[in-house]
From TrEMBL:
This is Uncharacterized protein. Residues 13-65, 66-116 form the Myb-like domain. Residues 153-166 have a biased composition (Basic and acidic residues). GO terms for molecular function: transcription cis-regulatory region binding. GO terms for cellular component: nucleus. Keywords: DNA-binding, Nucleus, Repeat. It is found in: Nucleus. InterPro entries: Homeodomain-like_sf (IPR009057), Myb_dom (IPR017930), Myb_TF_plants (IPR015495), SANT/Myb (IPR001005).
Length: 204
DNA sequence: AACAACCTCAACCGCATCAGA
DNA sequence: GTCTGATGCGGTTGAGGTTGT
């Protein structure tokens, strides 16, 4: 039996709450998760008395209520990292988010779609306006390097001690990132990269 | 002030994968 | 081996806010 779209929507509305979460719902959800832990989302939704599906509860927790969620603007360093990781991993947002503590895959995906994809397109357009020789990348990282040069420049204001520490860490960092450009992606390298401790990504 | 166009981001959807029965 | 429910992921949508005319 085929339902008209409007009827389907009405039916769904009666089934469960949809749309933005209220503070009350957040509170109920957080309370139940604090007792039972973040699993068995269907049960959690029922226990919290929320007229929401488990999936919706999970998403709300993962993207908003979870502790240590970092909210607010993406820093230059984070943007640099996203660009590099996206170049490496493609649209594997959860993997990228895994290397950015406190950031969610949804947040990074949104940031990419609204900011970075445009930024890259703009850079590509600029490059296409140059001569063939000028526009030819010096190495495969060029696009990301151009996009992040401003961020790197801003780092000049940091203290000397931090600079020394950064430069040594960046050498290793760059070595890791440069390696795949030399040839096909190396699985050993990839797994090494993905297992790296989060602290590698923050030089503060 | 009013409207349109654009932007941002929370939330939803469908599909794939995993784990347990 | 198969089924089923739970979970995770990436793509997409749409409401609300902002900016431009």
């Amino acid at each position: 039996m085929q339902m008209a779209p409007v009827l389907i929507n009405e039916y769904r509305k009666k089934e469960s709450n949809r749309g933005a979460w209220t503070a009350e719902e957040d509170q109920k959800l957080a309370q139940v998760i604090s007792i039972h832990g973040p699993r068995r989302w269907k049960c959690i939704a029922a226990k919290a008395g929320l007229n929401r599906c488990g999936k919706s509860c999970r998403l709300r927790w993962m993207n908003y209520l979870r502790p240590n969620i970092k909210r607010g603007n993406i820093s230059d360093q984070e943007e640099d990292l996203i660009l590099r990781l996206h170049k490496l991993l493609g649209n594997r947002w959860s993997l990228i988010a895994g290397r950015l503590p406190g950031r969610t895959d949804n947040e990074i995906k949104n940031y990419w779609n609204s900011h970075l994809s445009k930024k890259l397109k703009q850079i590509e357009r600029q490059n296409s306006g140059l001569t063939a020789t000028e526009s030819e990348p010096k190495n495969p990282d060029e696009v990301a390097q151009v996009a992040t040069s401003a961020a790197n420049n801003r780092e000049e204001g940091t203290s000397r001690a931090n600079e020394d520490q950064k430069s040594s860490q960046l050498m290793i960092w760059d070595e890791l990132f440069d390696r795949p450009a030399e040839g096909p992606l190396n699985l050993e390298w990839m797994s090494k990269f993905l297992e790296m401790d989060e602290s590698w990504f923050y030089f503060a």
